[in-house]
Amino acid sequence: EVQLVESGEGLVQPGSSMKLSCVASGFTFSNYGMNWIRQAPKKGLEWIALIYYDSSSKYYADSVKGRFTISRDNSKNTLYLEMNSLRSEDTAMYYCAKGYGVMDAWGQGASVTVSS
Amino acid sequence: DIQMTQSPSVLSASVGDRVTLNCKASQNINKYLNWYQQKLGEAPKLLIYNTNNLQTGIPSRFSGSGSGTDYTLTISSLQPEDVATYFCFQHNSWPGTFGGGTKLELK
Fold this sequence. Notes:
By secondary structure, chain A is mostly beta strands. Chain A is 0% helix and 50% strand.
């Protein structure tokens, strides 16, 4: 069974940094592209980042480009999202999802609140 | 970036109804269109990928169609467990983009 488990959630102040992790199991992690998607409270879904299976390419939404960095460690079956210069509008549930284009498995989400 | 527009934003229907949800792209997305279902308090779930391919384990009452800029998700006979918000997502070009969602309610 495919499982994705996010961690690192919490409350941070504007301007600070935070790093989310997503541990994968039940599939060959190193064969798949991985994504981060977020959902602000009571809002829709926003795709924010993609990393290829081998980290050779990364893509970002304009809203996070230059502030967020997606990375992965295939030896640990783990996906990361490093978030810098956090703003109140980054407050959201953050989901990791498996797949390039077709995101066919999602984690349960990690809640990030940016507030003073 | 490609903009995705879903309509209607809210849809009320009765059990057994045939329901159609729409998604329009700001440019041709070459059928690289997925549909996701999100129930209250849960993570989204993939229903349909690349316009008309039913994800494993999804009931056959769900189907997708479309081409170019216009795409449709159809539920042939609405069931109570289908109450959810539905999102389309294009992956023809990056950044990928979601539609704003259609909230499906029971009448």
